[in-house]
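pasting for ref
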Amino acid sequence: MNKKYIYKSVINHGSFKESVSYEEKGTYHYDQGNHVVKFVSNGEKFEISYNDHHVSLKHGQSNLFLSTFEEIENDYVTQYGVMHLTTRVLKLESAENKLSLIYELVVQGEVVSTVYIMLRGQELSDEA
């Protein structure tokens, strides 16, 4: 199902804050208990798969896995190389067309970033 997706994230790195926002056409489907959203922005593919307790964020070559049940160790690919980090979910609210997520990135026991993500899907208008 094609929809318009609004994706916003704010990443707090101590005193430094970084914001990203996308508004793109994408696809939605429900697969084995997960909401799956795919879209492309600036030539890069995004895939967000989520349910009430788990989230998978794929962006280019990077995959990040999160769970409300436990901290998860990840090897995250960045432009500078692979980072070994742990994700810790602070808040997760999900619905078919909506995801609200707050999580921490932990490196060697230290919180290096707190990330806020909002995803919202809307039906495409006839003009889109």
